User: Fold DMT family transporter from Saccharospirillum mangrovi.
Amino acid sequence: MSSTLRAHLALLLAMSIWGSSFIALKIAVGVMHPMQVIFVRMAIGAITFLLLYKLWASGVRYQAGDWKWLLGMAAFEPCLYFIFEAMALQYTTASQAGMITSMLPLMVAAGAWYFLREQISRYQWSGFGIAVIGVVWMSWNSDISASAPNPALGNFLEFLAMASAVGYTLLVKKLTRGYSPLFLTAMQAFVGTAFFFPLAMTQPWPDTVALSTWIILGYLGVVVTLGAYGLYNYALSHISATVTAGYTNLLPVFTLFFGMVLLQDTMNLQQWFAIALVFAGVLLSQRAPKVELPIHPSATPGAS
Assistant:
């Protein structure tokens, strides 16, 4: 098997892991307060990184003044990103939240155009507009249920999570010139643990937490963060960032699949038409050359 084929298979597995993270997070926030879930997840990730200290800390050369960029990166993700995403999953289904992630590559391109003066074609603008219409249509026609008490609000909060991911990605573009992606991911875990600790402590903890919940939290903290990241990083070392970034469009497909199989999420007919419109917008945007901006795995919902 060629290294290129292995890279593509690694990407498929990484996307399936990240897609499943929405389901895991949806289950966990039904047992514990969202801020407690994120704190435990960050803490597990931070402990794992401490055990792997030599792997990510070797060769790091801090540049004066970079603290503000590192802090800004962590503020966008995990801090703002996970606040919005955890809140979103209280109001909408994992499947619908996952659909919002299909807009991430387009939003990154728009952010790069505005802040970095990157070129973006009319196809990309058109695709972005169509995808937005599809997301609004899907949210407007969502059925209220026990798993989605306010889907319009939940989908909007997930959109804000994606906006935070865009800000994070633009800062990663700057920081990866001097720091390894693994080092940056470790910094996120440490800052996230410190940030979410007081938020978690303001809420009453459940008297008991089932072993199944701890397994889910461990999955989020270790498998999603390190496993998916390792696969993605391997792929980046063998194929271009442009091709790699295109695989993020598969996230909503995996999330929708896992949501329907594991959580019995359902979609009405109008939502299926809206989903088709979102994918049409994404496909239209692919006609133009993509902005050569690496999508860091932690910028993907559920990957940090």
